[in-house]
Amino acid sequence: MTLSRRTLFRGGVVLGGAVALDRRDPPLALADDSAMVVRQATNIALSHHGGIGRIVFDAVNSLWLLPVAGGSARRLTDDAEDATWPSFFPDGKRVAFQSFRDGAYDICAVDLSSRKVERLTSGPQYDLDPSVSPDGRRLVHVSDTGGRSAVWLLHLDSGCPRSLVGADDDRSYHAPTWHPDGDRIAYVAGEGTIETLHLPSGRRKVLHTAPEGQWFRGTSYGPGGELAYILVDGPRATLYLDGRALTGRDEEPAQLPPAWISRKELAYGADGEIRRRAIDGSGLQAIPFSVALAPPGRPPRIRTPLAPPKESTVRGVAGPALSPDASSVCFRAMGALWLLRLGGKAEKIVDDGYFSSDPAWFPDGRSIVYSSDRSGVPNLWRHTFGGGDERLTDLPNGAMVPSVAPTGDRIAFQDESGATHVLDVASGKTRQIAEATYFPGKPSWSPDGRRVAMAVVEAASERDTAGHNHIMVVDTETGKATTQPVAPHRSIATRGDDGPVWSPDGASMLAVIESLVHRVPVASDGTVTGAPVALSPMVADSVSVSAEGNVLFLSLGKLVLLGDRQYVPPITCTMPDPPPRKVIRAGALWDGRSDGYRNDVDITVEDGVITAVEDARPENTPSVEATTVIPGLIDVHNHWHFRGRQWGSRQGPLWLAYGVTTSRSTGDPAYHMLETREAIHSGARVGPRFLGSGEPLDGSRCYFGFMRCVTSEEQLLRELQRIIGLDYNVVKSYQRLPVALERTLVRHLRRAGIPVVSHYLYPAVATGLNGMEHTGGGNRLGYSRTLSAAGGRTADDTIQLLSESHMWVSSTLLFAHEMFLETPDLIEDRRTKVLFPWWEYERLLEKVREAPDNEINKAWTEGDVDLLLRVHKAGGTVVAGTDAPLDDVGVGIHQNLRAMVKYGFSPREALQTATTNAARCLGASDLGVVRPGARADLLAIDGDPLNDINDAARIERVFVDGRSYRIPELLAPFEDLTTPRGASTPAPRLHGCCRIQKGK
Ligand SMILES: [Zn+2]
Ligand SMILES: [Zn+2]
Fold this sequence. Notes:
It is a single chain. This protein is an alpha+beta fold. The chain folds into 4 domains: 3-214 and 269-293, Neuraminidase (6 Propeller), CATH 2.120.10; 311-574, TolB, C-terminal domain (Neuraminidase), CATH 2.120.10.30; 575-630 and 930-974, Urease, subunit C, domain 1 (Roll), CATH 2.30.40.10; 633-927, TIM Barrel. Helices cover 15% and strands 35% of the residues. Helix 14 (891-902) packs across helix 15. Residues 759, 773-774, 777, 994 line the site of one zinc ion (ZN). Residues 628-963 form the Amidohydrolase-related domain.
């Protein structure tokens, strides 16, 4: 797919241009709604009414009214309504649609003349894809009421909904449509089938079956009972009419229902436009439109510090565990394990430079178990106070997040894939008790030592993998697992350290819910028996319990013993003294801004800052001589602790070894992030400058273990306390925060000077978010509003909104595996082979093996870079981000740069996305550039990266704040920690990525 192919189609069609306002329509709603006029929109859904000669379509998540001939569209709904998927009522006076205004999809209707919105459904379920019946008295839609994707019928007179099909099967449903006779509907069932249902008889019939690996979307019955629909095949989508293709490979219709303009003509969204064509395929035309939008909002001006002050009290207390007698707490801080006597001193108990984490107490209080990767992969070790460290497991797939049974003889733990096991301490034998689930929380034992509870994600339905964090209880004898919510439609805050933790009397479990610590009453088998009760109004994280039932949690960096008092960790985070003055002599210097190199340069570094950049002087004695020097690379989007335990101590050296000198997380478990940020800045751990964030804020549902469901303004204010109190460097509003809450979030962050990003472009632009992460990140709609759903094509609205606003866009080219085939050097590179845990290396090889045949990955990569390049050329800000460890740690930044260059960036332009541009989105003018006054973050490279981008990985030495690291030094601690005994092919990479794969 090339630019020319993409634009070719527009040659024969009329584009919007200056279309006169249709005088029959009232004027536009808001005076300032003309700051940006957009003439394309991505993934348009539309509905047509012949009687009034109008189309209603959704663009930028609002409904717009348009004459069939085209023109200036009239806004029907505001940004907060978050309206999509219109369906006309037969009288032409109202339009049904789906609204996310209240944080879950409801079916609503808007009156075209008054623009008053009526809510037809409400509640925590998602009601989607409405279609109004020919008589206007009924409506069919998809709903996930009761945890099942199903087609529902709503009688508008009675307001009474009932499920029609799907409530008793495990298929996902999409796009129901009414037959003109009013007795039948068609819908997509289980992705690959179109069925009909005869309502009076309940008879069902399969109408079409998609070939293997393909799926249907967007059904629409015509006036004569013909059925139009979309068939999706990898990166292609085709509009069909009763088995006959109407569109070719040169366009990509939106995966949404087409509208019938007449018996002979269809209208549909495709490649940013509304198009019409006759049902014989002829007469293709665009229906030009323009929509006028509010001006960009004012984003927070970034004022977050790049490093903590010279001395500060440690707040990064990761995984605190209260001792059985409630006198002491163990936790990870500043790269070590600590024992803190409450009210007394803290002492380091494990500190060998490897990743030691998640201490859990033995019941006698004399020792703890923890995991450490000092032997290559994380395994369990026992530390006896006043004694030594004894190894408990030697498992190739790792052993993490241990929990000791109340009897002290067994330990529950999880392997790298998320499967749960039990170790018999005396014999050393282990036994798997639960299959891998998607990033489960820490296990906790029942007081009788029979069961283990943990947080798991329960999908909302077959159509939505997101849902809530529930309690799973596993019987360790039988392996029987049961899953239940803490309360209907509520979530345990995160799947990590937030419980459930079984209370020692067995009558309750402790869990953090909506950022407050709660007691959840349970029966002896773990069944929830009542509503959760909040125990404290303090913002809470990481709950743990003593043998007497005392409850400990973290609140804004302090340890809180409930009913007792708060304890400030008596540990100081001290910045190290800067390295001595040095002169770096570069044969060639690229300063991050210039078009080319400056030859034979001396760079003087004092106190970590560049003080001079001058022609090489004979009287200077350089401490380092380099062929080429460029600014250190910045990765603006990663998740250090998404698999932080799995990558362990390798992660920091790996980022550095591949030239990343600043790494910004856009979402992590807050206290684990803080711990790593303090450990790196204080020099306790080796790694790039780390700027961090806590859990991204999601809405009524969530999926990743380190994201938070936020369901009310009251809770949002608690989240803001944590965000501001713990000094996040950025906040990610994830997929499901309603527009109104997001406005509140931005308002507060503007005051705090903390940038906020999301996956969305509009209304994020108007709300005042700072950036859009990914080119077409996961979307609550199930499809993107910035990239086409199948082929990843970009329409002009995306380019226009990104380049005319303040927002940056991050690259995160997660699917650029094809680059491994063209330039395989990074696979064989010592840095990859030594610093990747063996299972990650195996999965990397698997990606390489699959790359040649993966057509959709190639289409997406090409499409993603096309978007980035057009934004860049239009004057927007493109920044390099990897999304590692969803992409590969370290290696990913080079894959991003290489793919950019392959599809049109110059090497210099690509490098700027990871240097000067990236620095701008950190609010750091002293990063990403080599000039006096800038921080000395530099790469010494043996090559010519401005001519060959592959050379950017040929790094010999890395400087962060003037501190130097050579590659062999970074590799040394891991050289002998090769693949462990018994290692076999690991389980396939667990899915989970920010990109929508299939509109589920
Ligand atoms: Zn991400
Ligand atoms: Zn994302």
